[in-house]
Give the backbone structure.
Amino acid sequence: MEKKKTWVCYTIGAAVLLTAAFFFTLTVLPVGTCFAQTTDEKSIECQKEIAKTIVHGTAVGLGEILKEVKGEKKRIALIRKFVSPVRFYADNTGYFYVYKFNCVNVAHATQKELQGKNLYKHKDAKGKYVIRELSDAAKTGGGFVDFYWLKPSVKGEQKKVGYVEPIAGTDYFIGTGVYLP
């Protein structure tokens, strides 16, 4: 039994290291190119492409890792531990959030107080049911949703475009976003 537990820990550790290398490649190398673009519009499109690529890779990786994890509490603990320290984009405003399709927050890298809360009725500053729309986009395989959300280190909600995808084999979806000027 102890050998199996050690093997699972080793496998998860290896997967996390591989994912970290993946993030480094995706965030450090392309970001310089994105910010070298000549217009804000091109830079935003490049950041959206990075968001889509990072979410897709992470959703696939987490889906594989979670196949080996039994029990909802253990799965949630692993997801929270995984997304908590990850930041990307040059200004570190990139982070992950994970929800169940029923709009219950599983993990949020910058707003830990949301974890475990049902945000089905949450509206942004403009009255949009943000999490419902994100969930609907994830249910169809993934997509972008425009909304307003709290930006780290800034007061009040800021305009944002989020990208989400389902995590295969689970009832979760993962997302990130780009804060717009």
Q: What stands out?
A: Confidence is low (pLDDT under 50) at residues 24-32.
